[in-house]
């Protein structure tokens, strides 16, 4: 049995199949309470230029760094999900969050992917109000759209990993921390993440810079650098009574 940990949010993903899920449906209304207890989620390359206007973008530590959106200033805190499960209307919802409860999972030989659904998800429901399959067992738009979305996500995940690995190879990622002072005098500190060293990036050779431009990586670097200004957005979202100073 594989001991590989499951991705964030997923607890019991199973292949979507009419024999198992013929009388199951997807909740009509998104409920993001499943994400309320996390302060960061992965981002894919295509969404960095949009996400940078709403969240600080940082990179995970380790041998295989990956960009993530910072959602809160404390552990297990998401400042963008309210008690009713709504995502803040003025904020972009990351694709990783919108993908749930669906996901593409590799088989043991890593030769193919299968569309799966997390059977523990609140959006996974009994009945046929919004079914995955029609009466003949054929996929409905719900299942087809989920497959297309997850397929596009997987392609972007691969491209994003390539970009992050290029940052590592070029020595552009450095350890960083964020220190925040709240208006009530409390001080918070976030660490364990990396950022792009802008000075090192500026020293890329002309040849390497052109290669990055051809790869489409330059807008991703700039999006990350722009996102630094959104730390104050997180501070503002804490609100009273723990509303910190800018």
UniProtKB/TrEMBL annotation:
<dbReference type="Pfam" id="PF07277">
    <property type="entry name" value="SapC"/>
</dbReference>
<protein>
    <submittedName>
        <fullName>SapC family protein</fullName>
    </submittedName>
</protein>
<dbReference type="InterPro" id="IPR010836">
    <property type="entry name" value="SapC"/>
</dbReference>
């Amino acid at each position: 049995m594989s001991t590989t940990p499951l991705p964030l949010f997923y607890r019991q993903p199973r292949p979507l199949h009419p024999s198992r899920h013929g009388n199951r449906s997807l909740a009509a209304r998104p409920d993001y309470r499943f994400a309320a207890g996390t302060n960061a989620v992965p981002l894919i390359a295509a969404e960095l230029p949009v996400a940078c206007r709403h969240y600080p973008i940082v990179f995970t530590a380790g041998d295989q760094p990956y960009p993530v959106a910072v959602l809160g200033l404390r552990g297990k805190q998401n400042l963008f999900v309210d008690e009713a499960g709504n995502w803040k209307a003025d904020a972009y919802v990351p694709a990783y969050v919108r993908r749930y409860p669906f996901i593409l999972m590799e088989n043991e030989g890593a030769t193919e992917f299968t569309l799966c659904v997390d059977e523990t998800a609140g959006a996974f429901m009994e009945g046929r109000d919004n079914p995955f399959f029609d009466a003949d067992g054929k996929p409905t738009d719900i299942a087809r759209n989920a497959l297309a979305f997850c397929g596009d996500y997987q392609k972007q995940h691969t491209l994003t990993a390539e970009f992050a690995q290029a940052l590592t190879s070029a020595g552009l990622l450095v350890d960083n921390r964020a220190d925040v002072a709240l208006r009530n005098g409390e001080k918070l500190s976030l660490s364990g993440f990396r950022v792009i060293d802008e000075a090192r990036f500026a020293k890329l050779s002309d040849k390497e810079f052109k290669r990055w431009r051809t790869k489409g990586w330059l807008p991703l670097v700039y999006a990350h650098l722009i996102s630094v200004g959104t730390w104050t957005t997180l501070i503002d979202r804490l609100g009273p009574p723990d509303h910190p100073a800018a």
